[in-house]
Design brief:
11 helices, binds uridine-5'-diphosphate, Rossmann fold, globular, alpha/beta
Length: 365
Amino acid sequence: MRYDYLIVGAGLYGAVFAHEAKEHGKTCLVIDKRDHIAGNIYTKEEEGIEVHRYGAHIFHTSDEEVWAYVNRFASFNHYVNSPVAVYKDETYNLPFNMNTFSRMWGIRTPAEAKKIIADQIADLNITEPKNLEEQALSLVGRDVYEKLIKGYTEKQWGRKCTELPAFIIRRLPLRFIYDNNYFSDPHQGIPKEGYTALVSRLLEGTEVMLNTAYRDFIAAHPDAAEKTVYTGMIDEYYDFCFGHLAYRSVRFEDEHLETDNYQGNAVVNYTEAEVPFTRIIEHKHFVFGTQPTTIISREYPSEWKEGAEPYYPVNDEKNSALYEKYRALAEKDDKVIFGGRLGTYKYYDMDKVIAAALQDVKKEF
Ligand code: UDP
């Protein structure tokens, strides 16, 4: 057994890398410890509904090259993400836009909204937001922060908003027009046949071994490949030699319901701290499903521990500094390439993962 590349993880990064390597005449073996491909973008059909098994994934991008690339492997529908936020008995549109402000304050014009926000933050004097709380307050004022951000964010991250980096909230657009599109990118959609089919096409012609953990595999086959592409947790790869990086995990509680439409939207966020889950996903609405029944998933975030699935890197100061140590170690090792959310400890969206993989491939070949 001798390959050019051993790719650890059959997720999006690994699959793009494998595809490109094959195109360049290289041989790859992809291994994954799970019993399926596609990593956390894995979707599985249940009762005719494509269920996002590890959390909802909505593809969106401003990168023309990436958009052209994914369209070679999947056909995308015209889904536009417009989540709804529930706070106690109040319902708001997301992202923060004129529909949100109008409902919050009973106003109609952008000037009225801007004035209320400015009044609410006048005495705070925030010039350079130092953390997520300051960033959120300076963008949307105290009411929106208290009702729609604080509770949700502290549940999601298990940390105070004052201890979280500002960039997390800048993922969301802020608009003074009536527009509920969660993303500002020109391209958006869900693969009509699911993400698993997309990854499967990327992996066509590449050997994949499932139910195969890296440690066991490499112990049995130390010379399997010239080089390793590792998309698992970078701290785990180095045996946690500098200590553990923090990750957030999510537990999904599914319900199959005998109704054709439970919540009228794919994504409904529950923003108050007292509700233990962050959101409910109703999967069929991602693809305009017309089945007589429905499947919903409640998301309960938690701190990652051994045995759970890691989903989100925690890019606070402490963990970012720790990651830098691992990154420095990786930089010295020309036999391994790290990729994806876990390998590079980045809160990546899918399009950024693909862009990074294509970039790394260019460097490599
Ligand atoms: N967020 C919030 N309220 C919401 C939705 C999101 O405060 O109703 C904040 C929260 O801090 C979250 C961040 O915005 O972590 C990014 O949200 P996004 O929807 O991008 O998270 P993802 O879909 O990646 O879980």
